[in-house]
Amino acid sequence: MSATRKADRAISGPASVLVVLLLCLAPAPAMANPFMGSQGQPSIAPVQVGGQGQPSLVQGQLDLRQKLAGYLSQWKGGRSASLLLVIVGIAFAYGILHALGPGHRKTVVFSIYIGRKAPWWEPIASSLALAGLHGGAAILLLIIFRGVSGAVSAATDSVATIMEGSAYCLLIVMAAFLLARATLDLVKGRARSADGMGLGTLILTGIYPCPGAILVLVLSLSLNIVDIGIVAVLAMSLGMSLPILGFAYLGWFGRSGLLKRLRNREADIQKVGAILEMAGFSLLLAFSVYIALPFISSVSGLVF
Q1: What angle do CA 235, 238, 243 make, to 5 degrees?
Q2: Percent of the chain's residues with pLDDT above 70
Q3: Cα 269 to Cα 93: distance, rounded to the nearest angstrom
Q4: I want to staple 33 with a disulfide (CB 3.0 to 4.6 A). Which of 41, 87, 254, 256 is the partner?
Q5: Using 50, 70 and 90 to split pLDDT, how confident is the model at 70?
Q6: What whole-number distance in Å separates Cα of residue 237 and Cα of residue 191?
Q7: What is the pTM of this model?
Q8: How far apart are CA 81 and CA 89, in angstroms?
Q9: Is the pLDDT reported for residue 247 higher than 80?
Q10: Hey, where are the domains in the chain?
Q11: What is the C-alpha to C-alpha distance for residues 21 and 12, in angstroms, rounded to an integer?
């Protein structure tokens, strides 16, 4: 076996074990305390979301949310095609504003695509997949917990917190692995064909519910109009995909433009490509650690 393959396996082996352990252990807090804050159980802190964004952006979300709630209430009284279009349009606009705020993997997709070679269509597919999973997970939680009388909101919020925190913990593990692999490639002076590890991790960690979608679904459940609530969440997910898509292509065009300037200079392209990978995965690692610290601290009992 070559030294290169041995080095790869030396890195990938422990990383794979860590991922498996993380996925196995992540549900443990949920099973111990499914509604968070029960007697004798410490509450689990959500991940860090940074600031609340621009006041105008926050106010815009609040206004659209109130309008959406009003039109959903109207739908309860009488359905029409025009009202359906209004609900879908407002939900779509709300999704755009919501995704422009903190979170929603914008920094993550930028880091991934500045650091890895990808075909032009991949940012579109990954952005749609992330937004779809974001809304789809909320729908799934509603289906699971709708039979829990009086506890739908508490249960979904609890599980959503655990799922999102576990997702960022997985990102930390995989970002560290990808950074180590990119560093080894640079030291060894070798080029690596693009693989799906970084993208697969990104998609996998997108499987946690969107708080905005949960609010819409809980309201629709209380009004007994879950069908239109699901339609609104799907429209919201499509809106959320647009800002994510923008950040994905910001990274993709940044990498492609820089490497295009170095065409016909194969050695430089190889070196710059490796450096971009290291920079992208370093940003991904630092961002994931920063976001996940409150969750890790509350679960582990450590103070950072």
Answers
A1: 135
A2: 73
A3: 41
A4: 41
A5: very high
A6: 37
A7: 0.72
A8: 12
A9: yes
A10: 52-300
A11: 14
- Please, how many CA atoms are within 13 Å of residue 138, restricted to the half-sphere of its CB? 29
Question: Helices (H) and strands (E) in the chain — how many of each?
Answer: 11, 0
Q: How big is the chain, counted in residues?
A: 304
**Paired tokens of 293:** 């610290």
Residue 274 near residue 280, CB atoms below 8 Å: no
Distance of alpha carbon 165 from alpha carbon 160, whole angstroms: 8
- Whole-angstrom CA distances from 52 to 64, 101, 103, 109, 217 are 17, 7, 10, 21, 23
Nearest CA to 207 out of 135, 128, 113 is that of: 135
Yes or no: say if 214 and 179 are a contact pair by the CB < 8 Å rule.
Answer: no
Eight-class DSSP state of 33: -
Q: Which of 162-171, 172-181, 230-239 has the highest mean pLDDT?
A: 230-239
Structure tokens given for 139: 């729908």
Element (H, E) at 234: helix 226-261
Q: Which of 140, 95, 32 has its CA nearest to residue 243?
A: 95
pLDDT of residue 54: 62
